[in-house]
Amino acid sequence: MNPALIAFELVARMNRIDVDIRAIAREFSIGEQITVDELLRIAKANDFKAKRKKLTAKQVGSGYPLPALVIDRVGVYSVLLKLDPKQDKALLFDPVHRKSFELSYAQLDERVADYLILRHKKISSQVVFGFNWFLQEILHFKRIIAEVLLGSFVVQLFGLVTPLFTQVILDKVIVHRSLTTLDVLAIAFLAVAVFELLLNISRNYIFIHTAHKLDAKLGCKLFKHLLGLPFRYFEARQVGTIAARVRELDNIREFITNKAVTVVIDLFFSLVFVAVMLLYSVKLTLVALAFVSLIALIYLVITPELRRRLESKFQMGAQSNSYLVESVTGIQTVKSLAVEGTMQNRWEDHLGGYVKSSFSLANIANIAGAISGTLRQLMTISILYLGVKAVLQGDLTIGQLIAFQMFAAQFSGPVLRLVNLWHEFQQALLSVDRLGDILNHPREVSSDKAITLPRLKGSLKLDHLSFTYHPDGPRVLDGISVEIKEGMSVGVVGRSGSGKSTLAKLLQRLYLPTEGAIYIDDIDSRHMNPFWLRYNIGVVLQESYLFSGTIRDNIALPKPDAPMELILQVAQIAGAHEFIAQLPEGYDTPVSERGASLSGGQRQRIAIARALINNPRLLIFDEATSALDYESEHIIQQNMKKIKQGRTTLIVAHRLATIKECDLILVLDKGKLVESGRHEQLLQQRGVYAGLHAQQGF
């Protein structure tokens, strides 16, 4: 095991945190080497605040938490357990040799290149994703938020300068014809303008930088959580709908980085302007407040309808996106059936619904915007009308009236900008709700709450196993009990819909039993870490998915650091090496999306090699050869003895020729195990298996 992970495990356990480093290594794809950034990521994923620092022993002892991870000058990890300043001694632990040793402070400083300071967060419960999550994350940047708030406050104070300068110019400079005062005011105004410009640029830079860091953190959290969701989450939702929910991150990003939050901050500080306006004229201030309140009321009234139309637009967009994905994925079927016209008509129906919902949303936003613009103009006219009356009556000077008008604009500006952003704000609220469908959905059992074993042997026991897709639905599997010893090859056959593939998914812990249990090496699979379990199970599906990259990348996908010798070995066992070697670029041949550039037989042999790369003790073939031509199937069958050697193999098939040589054959019918035994025994029983045998022309 990687020494850095052993060291991290010790630090975690000393913080009373139970971690499973084998599961962590699998989850983060850690091989023999690990970078500092990877270790920091692992620490943060396990609720540690982690920082890399260059420190002396005295600095560490002055207040940093122990134990800490130590990286020496050649990259070897150890754990700093204790510092004793009185005796000038440091106690460390060597994870490679599993023993502790002492160094003086001077020796420690000479040896150490970096410290990884780990401080565990005391988290009482998982925070539900919503705006509270953003609030908690923003509070991690307290110093930066304080700087933004201070900058906003100063900017708002500078907003007082222009109206006051204008008032002085109108009431003092023009009346007294004081050009000297005008020059002084102009220079002061220019200095304030330049300082305000620099402050605005700095404030917005700090804020946008922080917002992008928050955006990156949310993006990583979202994708990690998505991959950790149960398989049934994806079965219950269309691909396009999931993709649409993930893209809601763009709406949140746009809202945060579009100065929306600075507008809210400016709105808060606009209270300063209200206080100043009251000093000028209570009556005019109440007029301004009345119009601004009326504009805000209009948007509050339309909010329910706005949210309804936003939701309608999202649903129509998700349906259009799902249909597009479905059409492109099934393009071969579309062209084979010559149904382009039908597909186009359906697409236009989907697109028409989306355009209609978008227009409906834009229309209500446009009406509200037009009304608010008219009210703003009426506010300006009303203030001027009443203000001129006050000037004529001697209650205000012309300078004070103009200054008040500017203060009113400064006050109403953030409010009206927020009103203009109301549509985006409602969109962001709905986006948070939709992301919550992903981020608030429970993940599979995390690594610190599940069992992992040093090594999987491969014995299986199904104990009265039953499964239903829905609580009130029919049983897909019904009371199956069987024991399979390690190293056995087992065939699973039955008519379509008998539950064969469902059984394969249950063994991988993609589904959980409704009743009964599956024991793997005498441990209930429900209590096993799903990531570790699947890492130790090789699976070959009927339609194995190949990813963009090279053939080498696809074979080594479960084990990215696999040496070329191992890749060649598993390719030869799978019968793939011969055709790969004939390709111009060999193992570096690019594979197009879904492996479309390769034949079905070639894709399947690469998938078998990929399943063998971890040397799994349990191997599952789920209808892996049912769609292959005779030649490809024959090549795989020729290599089956090598493939099955030293591991438990489960072969789900409908072609009986592929499972004749199995040590045990299980026959399923309507979810029940109706027969079991070897090929010859089952034929003699003259039951379901014998009937299938006869149907296939044996």
From TrEMBL:
GO terms for molecular function: ABC-type transporter activity; ATP binding; ATP hydrolysis activity; ATPase-coupled lipid transmembrane transporter activity; peptidase activity. One of its GO terms (cellular component) is type I protein secretion system complex. Its main location: membrane. CDD domains: ABC_6TM_CyaB_HlyB_like. Residues 460-695 form the ABC transporter domain. The chain crosses the membrane at residues 144-166, 178-199, 260-280, 286-306. It is a multi-pass membrane protein. Residues 1-119 form the Peptidase C39 domain. One of its GO terms (biological process) is proteolysis. Residues 148-427 form the ABC transmembrane type-1 domain. PROSITE patterns: ABC_TM1F (PS50929), ABC_TRANSPORTER_1 (PS00211), ABC_TRANSPORTER_2 (PS50893), PEPTIDASE_C39 (PS50990). It is found in: Cell membrane. InterPro entries: AAA+_ATPase, ABC1_TM_dom, ABC1_TM_sf, ABC_transporter-like_ATP-bd, ABC_transporter-like_CS, ATPase_T1SS_HlyB, P-loop_NTPase, Peptidase_C39. Keywords: ATP-binding, Cell membrane, Membrane, Nucleotide-binding, Transmembrane, Transmembrane helix, Transport. It holds the Pfam family ABC_membrane. PANTHER family: ATP-BINDING CASSETTE SUB-FAMILY B (PTHR24221), BLL6336 PROTEIN (PTHR24221:SF647). This is Type I secretion system permease/ATPase. It comes from Pelovirga terrestris.
